[in-house]
Design goal:
- By secondary structure, the protein is mostly helical.
- 75% of the residues lie in helices and 0% in strands.
- Helix 8 packs antiparallel against helix 9 and helix 14 runs antiparallel to helix 15.
- It starts with a helix and ends with a helix.
Length: 389
């Protein structure tokens, strides 16, 4: 019996076999379009930055002048040459050619991808065609936005306020110190929070209400009040108010541990309760006491399941360390956000905030990658165990 074209379309696509020239070409067009916008723009920027040169007439016309502190009325702009090179690079002919090429290739990938993907006879071919179309959309949006944005005078102001990286010369030590203090605060808070959280979780799971109540009160208090309030209350109320003189840095470490402990307690509680009741019953049947069963049978299994959410809490804590700026730290104790804030206070340039954001991303993105890798590893391990049983 002959199979009609409609029946072929209704059947699930074949996932086997290589791709074809058409979907592969569509995917290549999409990739080339996006690369022209991103990689092409970066290459042009680097070329103009290395080539250097004096301020151009167009840059001077838009208010970019050399910095001269002796001229009190018009002192100019620090790093005006670097800003000018970036502006000239974006408005250059090579950049225009790259953006127009990206838009054309992206539009071609969009049109051909959406027009042909339904006729592909395998999932791989469909994915390549759709992937090329999606990449084309990204290239057209980014290329069109850059073409529009660079044409206005606002681009010079944007570059001057956010990308004046010349101001960062000599600030590397300060940012490295900020990154170190950020990690110390986060690691210290996470380590203390895990210990506190595990103890609280065991108390919160007790069958006796008199044992559960204090743990639940602690958890609800620290989860129900803002971390910023907790920092201020413990520093100004306890450390200074009671004359303990712990200092802002130590107080922040303590508060981060107490706050993380409340969230870690809920993570541990959920992990322990996710273990099947039969595990506890089997341990008690072997003669273990409740504490021994928790220590040797339940908690080790729960720890494996709570590793990913605890690592997510660590990533969140890295960002929350920025709140310590409200306590007033010594210069040697500055974390990344405070370093950026102090830099902005002296230059009035938001480039320092851009640099601090890059610093946070350098720290957090690898951690996010580790979290995803651990989740995949644990998921595959659990699937393997289930399959074996």
């Amino acid at each position: 019996m002959a199979v009609t074209e409609a029946q072929v379309r209704e059947q699930p696509p074949d996932v086997r076999g290589p791709t074809a020239p058409l979907p592969a070409g569509i995917l290549a067009m999409g990739l080339a379009a996006l690369a022209a916008v991103l990689a092409g723009t970066l290459i042009v920027q680097l070329f103009y930055a290395v080539a250097g040169g004096p301020l151009t007439a167009s840059c001077k016309a838009e208010g970019l002048t050399h910095f001269n502190p002796k001229n009190t009325s018009r002192p100019g702009i620090r790093g005006a040459e670097g800003i000018c090179h970036g502006v000239e690079a974006v408005r250059s002919l090579p950049e225009s050619i790259l953006l127009i090429l990206a838009i054309v290739l992206g539009a071609a990938a969009i049109a051909s991808g959406f027009a042909t993907y339904r006729r592909m006879d395998s999932k791989r071919k469909r994915e390549h065609a759709l992937g090329g179309a999606v990449l084309g959309i990204q290239a057209v949006v980014l290329g069109g936005a850059l073409l529009w944005f660079r044409s206005g005078g606002g681009f010079v102001k944007f570059a001057r306020n956010f990308f004046n990286f010349v101001l960062l010369r000599g600030q590397m030590d300060a940012f490295l110190t900020g990154a170190k203090n950020t990690l110390i605060l986060a690691l210290g808070g996470e380590a203390g929070g895990i210990i506190i959280g595990l103890i609280l979780a065991l108390l919160a799971l007790s069958h006796r209400r008199i044992v559960r109540a204090p743990a639940r009160t602690y958890i609800n208090f620290f989860r129900g009040t803002p971390l910023l309030w907790q920092l201020g209350f413990f520093y100004f109320g306890f450390s200074l108010g009671l004359g303990l003189n712990l200092g802002a840095y130590k107080t922040a470490l303590i508060v981060f541990s107490l706050n993380t402990g409340a969230y870690a307690a809920e993570v541990f509680r959920a992990g322990i309760q996710s273990i099947e009741r039969g595990q506890m019953e089997a341990a008690r049947g072997l003669g273990f006491s409740y504490v021994q069963a928790m220590r040797y049978a339940i908690v080790p299994q729960a720890v494996r399941r709570v590793i990913p959410p605890l690592m997510n809490e660590f990533v969140i804590l890295i960002k929350d360390t920025s709140l310590v700026f409200t306590l007033g730290l010594l210069q040697s104790q500055y974390e990344l956000y405070t370093v950026a804030r102090e830099g902005y206070a002296t230059t009035f340039s938001a480039t320092f905030f851009v640099a601090s954001a890059i610093g946070y991303l350098i720290i957090t993105l690898p951690m996010i990658g580790v979290v995803n890798a651990v989740e995949r590893r644990l998921r595959s391990g659990l699937v393997g165990i289930a399959g074996a049983s």
